[in-house]
Amino acid sequence: RDRGYTVQKKLLEQTFTEFKEIFQSEEVNGNREHPNMVLYCKKPMSDDRMIVYFCDEKGKTGVKPVETLANLLINPPDGTPDCMRGIIVVRSPLTPFAKQAVSEAGQKLPGRTPIEIDVFLEAELLVNLTECNLVPKHEVMSEDLKEQVLKRYSVKDSQLPRIQFTDPMARYFGLRRGEVVKIIRASETAGRYVTYRLCV
After folding, report:
1. Domain range annotation of the chain
2. What angle (nearest 5°) sits at the alpha carbon of residue 195, between those of residues 168 and 148?
3. Where is pLDDT greater, at 5 or 51?
C-alpha cells in the first residue's frame, strides 16, 4: 500500500487469528509452503500491477521460487495481462544462482518490458520503516512532479543529492534508478526541512 497499490480492505482488517487460518504454512516434501500466499495488487487508474509471492524454503532460497514468481508475472493465473513487477519474500538468503535468476528474469521474453523482482527477507519486514520516528517521511515523486521541481530550482536531475537504490527506504518504496524522492525532516528553526534525492 505504501507503494501506491490498492490492497483489499479485508486483508488490512484481518486479525492475526484470521491471518493464520488462511495463510498457515503446510509441510510439503520437507519444505513449508504458503499455498495461499500470492497477493495481487494494482495501482488505481493505471495498468501497473504487482504480485507478492511468499516463499518458505528451508536453508538458502534456490532458483525454483524465483522461477515460480517469474512465471506468475508472465502468465498470471487470473487471466489478466502480465505483470512487470514482483516481490518475493523469503525466510533465508538467496543462493548465488537464485540471485542470477532474479537479474536475468526480465531477459526471458524478448520484446516485452523486463520483469523486475524485489527480494525481501521476512526479518526485514517485521518493522515498518515508515513508522519509525527516526526515519524522515519519504514521498516518491511522479515524473510530472519531478519535472516541476527541476524547473522550479533550475537544476538537472544529476545535480540533485543522491540516494542509492540499495538504501533500505529506496528498497521499501521500490525506487527505480532515475526516480526522485522527496524527504521531509523536522527542523527546530524552519519547522520542516525538505530535500529531493535522485535514485542511482
Report:
1. 9-125, 129-199
2. 110
3. 51
